[in-house]
């Protein structure tokens, strides 16, 4: 092999490794999880690599004692200029980056605001004679009941 060919192979090998994190041995794409492909790491080794906008996640599920690796969507990176729509912060949760939204926002990237109706209580009195008329009506009703009761007592004792 010439020096130029060796240099070209090194460049290709470095380029493949720098595209993304590889994991798990494979012989073809069927050996990799969904959203991943089998790539050549070097002349003797092939591993799975998540597709663009997906990152490897070691799930809590183990198969034959080995943690199952899934390729999950990349929601945010802390180094992003505008992570989580500036309405939350990008944090690591269960081994992957997710947006933790500030109060009043929700969604995968905190893109939706919540609107909570606020109950208010008034302390002003009702104006006019409405309150006075209701009190007078209740008093008149009580007088009528008392009068009817007194009349019934007088006629029965009589």
From TrEMBL:
Superkingdom field: Eukaryota
Domain EGF-like, chain residue ranges per copy: 72-111
Cross-referenced CDD domains: EGF_CA
Signal peptide: 1-18
Keyword terms, alphabetized: Disulfide bond, EGF-like domain, Membrane, Signal, Transmembrane, Transmembrane helix
Pfam families: EGF
InterPro entries in the cross-refs: EGF (IPR000742)
Disulfide bonds: 101-110
Transmembrane region(s): 129-153
Protein name, as recorded: Delta-like protein C
Organism ancestry: Eukaryota, Metazoa, Spiralia, Lophotrochozoa, Mollusca
């Amino acid at each position: 092999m010439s020096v130029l060919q060796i240099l070209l192979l090194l460049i290709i090998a470095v380029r493949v490794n720098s595209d993304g994190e590889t994991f798990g041995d494979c012989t073809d794409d069927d050996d990799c999880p969904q959203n991943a492909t089998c790539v050549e790491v070097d002349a003797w080794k092939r591993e799975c690599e998540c597709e663009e906008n997906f990152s490897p996640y070691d799930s809590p599920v183990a198969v034959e004692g080995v943690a199952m690796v899934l390729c999950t969507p990349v929601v945010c990176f802390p180094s992003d200029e505008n992570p989580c729509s500036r309405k939350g912060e990008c944090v690591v949760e269960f081994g992957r980056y997710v947006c933790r939204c500030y109060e009043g926002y929700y969604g995968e990237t905190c893109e939706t605001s919540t609107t909570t109706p606020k109950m208010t209580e008034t302390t002003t009195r009702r104006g006019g004679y409405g309150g006075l008329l209701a009190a007078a009506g209740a008093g008149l009703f009580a007088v009528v009941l008392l009068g009817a009761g007194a009349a019934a007592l007088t006629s029965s004792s009589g």
